[in-house]
Design a protein that fits this description.
Chain lengths: ~110, ~375
Amino acid sequence: MTARAPSGRLRGSTVTAIVFGGLLLLAAGLGAVSLIGADTAGRRDRAAALVAELALSDLALFTEARYTRNPALADLHTPFQDGPASLEHFPTASLIVAPRGLPAGRLEAREE
Amino acid sequence: MRATFERRRHLLDFAVRSLARRPTKNLGLVAVYALVVFVVGSVMLYGAAIRREAAAMLASGPELTAQAMTMGRHEMSRSADVAALKGLRGARRIEPRLWGYLWDSAGAANYTVMVPTASDTAHALAKGEAIVGEGVARARKLAPGKMLFLVSPSGKFLKTRVKAILSAESALVSSDLVLVEEGDFRAFFELPADAWTDIAITVTNPREVTTVAEKAGLKLPGHRFVSRADMSRSAEALFSWREGLTLALLAGALLAFAILAFDKASGLSAEEKREIGILKAIGWESRDVIAVKLAEGGLISGLAFLLGVIGAWTHVFFFSAGLFEPVLKGWATLYPRFPLAPTLDALEMATLAMLTVLPYMAAILVPVWRTASADPDAVMR
């Protein structure tokens, strides 16, 4: 069992082992650096404390419109508030969903 | 045992040599394949990380938020509404909130102006003081001690001195906040003394949220009660597989990949067929031919998968998913800069492999098996 072919070149399986071994080592190293280096629990605790203190309820991820800043507290048809025929025009709306749990009214049609 | 190992090793040697005979084609294939894994992997890692982050942060928010509604639109709550909820069984804390939006035409950004709740001693403010979020400080180049002027759309003017800047660690929830004192807020927005944006209710027993919401609903029938579960649901749906842009992005990547796999599955090239025919003619068994071809596919898949995953991990956790920023930012000027906590999720990796490696391997197996089991003379003709 040799690492080299009779021609003196490295065997294909040896090259494969080196390349895959190297990549796996690199992946493990990157994973270890990012997992060990971060103070995730402490950071999340401090952020959660701020959320509790200020009674915050939504993410400050999309700040372009009222219903994207606080989607949970927006009403279902806010995108159309500027006009009944106005279409949704914020790109963010393709990343979030419409709020649920709105007060339910209903329409009933009956024949008297 | 050793003989089997040597046999496998020789097959692998042969597969590598065979790949090396067509370096441009195979390297190109690995590059495209790795790019697909990179895009799909980045979306997956980013979505999962941000959902985890949001869930961890929002878990300590109020269990219920009561919002007055008039004609299907949000309305201000009154002090009488807050008083009506006093003594609500199961509620530990009932606190009216004051917050509103301010569009800053100079910075072209939307800020959330907010008053710290009465019980929040950590952010207590005196008249003329303000605490700003990391995004606001970045956009307006603020530092503690600097002056911050707010001008309302109606021309009202509020002069404040920045007392502190909220830590960047919480940017995901606080980036656009401008905290001011209650008197300043009411004067600035010309708000009557008994008006509140909404009411935050902290429930003693989280399992009783629905009951408490029902009871509170009887006291305030004109209010809508949004539970923390509803809010978490909107956070969970972020970058969900089934929604909008994410789906479009993934569908594009997977479609490109499907074309690639289909090209493979629809048949081998004449050169590859000839190669298989020669191998069979000189005495190779079909089993060995299939093993070599699968090894070739496995090497390409494995290499592309590893490269793609390493690239996606570096992109998301070391560069905060910088390539997605223009998409995520939308039309907002204030985009929070926040660190994402990596978590190694075996299920995520398995899903990514299932989506990319499995179809490719399946696509090679069928034509190779068909050619390898045919008569070598017929294959070579």
